[in-house]
Design a protein that fits this description.
The chain has 648 residues and is of the alpha/beta class. 31% of the residues lie in helices and 23% in strands. A hairpin with a 6-residue loop joins strand 4 (92-97) and strand 5. The structure holds 5'-O-[(S)-butoxy(hydroxy)phosphoryl]adenosine. 5'-O-[(S)-butoxy(hydroxy)phosphoryl]adenosine binds at residues 263, 309-310, 385-388, 410-415, 436, 497-499, 511, 513-514, 520, 525.
Length: 648
């Protein structure tokens, strides 16, 4: 923790949309009368038929139901594209920067409109209609934006699957939502390396019952050779040549689904987080404008992948609804060199830059010179998202990247929340390195103890949100009971975030990390249970327990305790084989950092694994293991400690 405070620079207080007094007044109004507040701000998007109802939400156990603007009719693609054509048709909507620094391209709103319509027609020609699910498994190329907006235009529900996921993970996500159409590319390109996306799609479809998927649309990215199944697969450019660039925007109810995005929880398979149309767009666009203090004409860059919610809300929907110029980057921070981010900022004159603590920590390791040799004079605001940012990384980001001139907005939110919930507003709220500071308009955080008692003043406990906001997820796709169970049963009547949190004497929030069996590896969310089930699927593994451990770059690393089948040798070879196995089962982001072969795991007499002990050992906190006397075999603990694997 750091006790440094950075006051709002005077210039910011004057020029930003919101200063301290306005924040206080608007926040007070937003929580006093949410209906009146959102009735007003819902108008920031265009409606074909205006809403007459605003908030209709219930967190009551057994009857959780969330509706916003429920009788309004609109279309997300219309709001992100068409409505800007008159005023800014020739303004750049998307700047695309390729993996290779010699490749980039600018797409105006008018061009975007034609591309989205064309893509929508290609989908429509394949029978895609309102309510259908379309899986998008693409690299960071403009077609990812076209495909998402094309779905929104038709009223189809997109499910974007990050290109780093394995065929196995992809097939699970395709079958869970029953999508009959997959959009992919021949290959992706990241850091100079090719990613076999189409081959992965083929392998994923092979894992599904015959005829599950009717259409695979393949965007040519590298031109690499891929297998095409006649009648099922088509190259996008060939299909697009046959259609026009005119396609009407479907009239969508505010509560019609917009997208599904799978995310990991503490138990079971990934959940299909469902977001709907009106409330989501109002919230994504409003937070984008106020949190980043986005002014017309500015160049805004969020480095996330569209496969994550950050890419949905803050590369695509929020910025485009606001008529912004949003930069989309195909590559990685260290290719061709560790100066890449800063070079892209200079090349495209980026004003607002939003990235993740893990990227900052890894670039920090390379020292200041790769940053300082670039200008970055265009920058005026920096942002952070994905995990708690440690004060050292915050200070480096502020001093070296932002040259003490740019405020940092540390934005706390989740896939489930649709948009940012706790964050500084740069013209209004002072900064404390490591704190996400204060709630956005309409957001009512509370800190509760284990029993659910609401704590007052400075305190530490679990973070809940007392009432709904428009961007909130509406359900788990196909499993409303799981939605209620996961988020509303721990503290009945409140949304439980899964995060621990401290509130200081100024009322500032400091997120301390997950309090459930979810770990955060380089800002990617991982259920320990998912990694465990991948490990036990290996024929030589009898049991596995996975926990997080502190990792200098990734924030948390993956520590796996593995018990082998009788007679199996715990070799270095097998260790490598298991890492490769998990990569294949889930994807590279789930690779265990450390594997400890354990003859036995610490279990209670009823057979429950005591993860608390495993966590402490992985954290090197051998003194604070707590009471181990209730273990069925307390002796296993010594063996676990003696064979603790070292951090790399
Ligand atoms: C979890 C949600 C929301 C975008 C990316 C991650 C952690 C996220 C912060 C932050 C501290 C953060 C939380 C949260 N998290 N942002 N600024 N400070 N923690 O979305 O994959 O749904 O993960 O990420 O633990 O619960 P996600």
């Amino acid at each position: 923790m750091s006790d440094k405070v950075y006051d709002v620079p005077a210039a910011w207080a004057h020029k930003a949309y919101v200063d301290d007094a306005k924040y206080k007044a608007m926040y007070a109004a937003s929580v006093k009368d949410p209906n009146a507040f959102w009735a007003e701000h819902g108008k920031r998007i265009d409606w074909f038929h205006p809403y007459t109802k605003v908030k209709n939400t219930s967190y009551d156990p057994g009857h959780v139901s969330i509706k916003w603007f429920e009788d309004g009719i609109t279309n997300v693609a219309y709001n992100c594209v068409d409505r800007h054509l008159d005023a800014r048709g020739d303004q750049v909507a998307i700047i695309w920067e390729g993996d290779d620094p010699s490749e980039s391209k600018k797409i105006t709103y008018r061009e975007l409109s034609a591309e989205v319509n064309r893509f929508a027609n290609v989908l429509r020609n394949r029978g895609v209609e309102k309510g259908d699910r379309v899986t998008i498994y693409l690299p960071m190329i403009p077609e990812a934006a076209y495909a998402m907006l094309a779905c929104a235009r038709l009223g189809a529900i997109h499910s974007v699957v990050f290109g780093g996921f394995s065929p196995d993970s992809l097939s699970g996500r395709v079958s869970d939502c029953g999508s009959k159409c997959i959009v992919t590319a021949d290959e992706g390109l990241r850091g100079g390396r090719k990613v076999p996306l189409k081959a992965n799609v083929d392998a994923a479809i092979d894992l599904l019952p015959a005829d599950s998927v009717d259409h695979v649309i393949v965007v040519r990215r590298t031109g690499g050779k891929v297998d095409m199944t006649p009648g099922r697969d088509v190259y996008y450019d060939e299909a697009a040549a046959l259609v026009t660039d005119e396609c009407p925007a479907e009239h969508m109810n505010a509560e019609d689904p917009l997208f599904i995005l799978y995310t990991s929880g503490s138990t079971g398979k990934p959940k299909g987080v469902l977001h709907t149309t009106g409330g989501y767009l109002v919230y994504a666009s409003m937070t984008h404008q106020y949190v980043f203090d986005y002014h017309p004409g500015e160049i805004y860059w969020c480095t996330a992948d569209v496969g994550w919610v950050t890419g949905h809300s803050y590369i695509l929907y929020g910025p485009l609804a606001n008529g912004a110029t949003t930069l989309m980057f195909e590559g990685v921070p260290n290719y061709p060199s560790v100066s890449r981010f800063w070079e892209v900022i200079d090349k495209h004159q980026v004003n607002i830059f939003y990235t993740a603590p893990t990227a900052i920590r890894s670039l920090m390791q390379a020292g200041e010179e790769p940053v300082k040799k670039t200008s970055r004079a265009s920058l005026r605001l920096l942002g952070s998202v994905g995990e708690p940012i440690n004060p050292e990384a915050w200070e480096w980001y502020h001093r070296v990247v932002g040259e003490d001139r740019c405020p940092i907005v540390d934005t706390w939110w989740q896939t489930e929340t649709g948009g940012i919930l706790i964050t500084p507003l740069p013209g209004a709220i002072k900064l404390k390195p490591g704190s996400a500071t204060l709630p956005f308009f309409g957001v009512m955080p509370e800190v509760v103890d284990a029993e659910g008692k609401v704590l007052a003043g400075a305190c530490e406990g679990n973070l809940v949100i007392a009432d709904s906001w428009p961007g909130q997820m509406r359900t788990v796709y196909g499993d409303h009971e799981r939605f209620e169970q996961t988020y509303f049963s721990t503290y009945p009547g409140k949304y439980f975030t899964g995060d621990g949190c401290r509130r200081d004497a100024d009322g500032f929030y400091w997120i301390t990390g997950r309090v459930d069996d979810v770990i955060n590896v380089s800002g990617h969310r991982m259920g320990t249970a998912e990694v465990e089930s991948a490990l036990v699927a290996h024929p030589k593994v009898s049991e596995a327990a996975v926990v997080g451990f502190p990792h200098d770059i990734k924030g948390q690393g993956i520590y796996a305790y593995v018990t082998l089948m009788d007679g199996m040798e715990p070799t270095e070879e097998l260790r490598k084989e298991l890492v490769a196995w998990v990569r294949k089962e889930i994807g590279p982001i789930a690779s265990p950092d450390l594997i400890q072969f354990a003859p036995g795991l610490p279990k209670t007499r009823s057979g429950k694994i005591m993860r608390r002990i495993l966590r402490k050992i992985a954290e090197d906190q051998f003194e604070s293991l707590g009471d181990t006397s209730t273990l069925a075999d307390p002796g296993v603990v010594d063996d676990l400690i003696n064979n603790r694997q070292n951090k790399r």
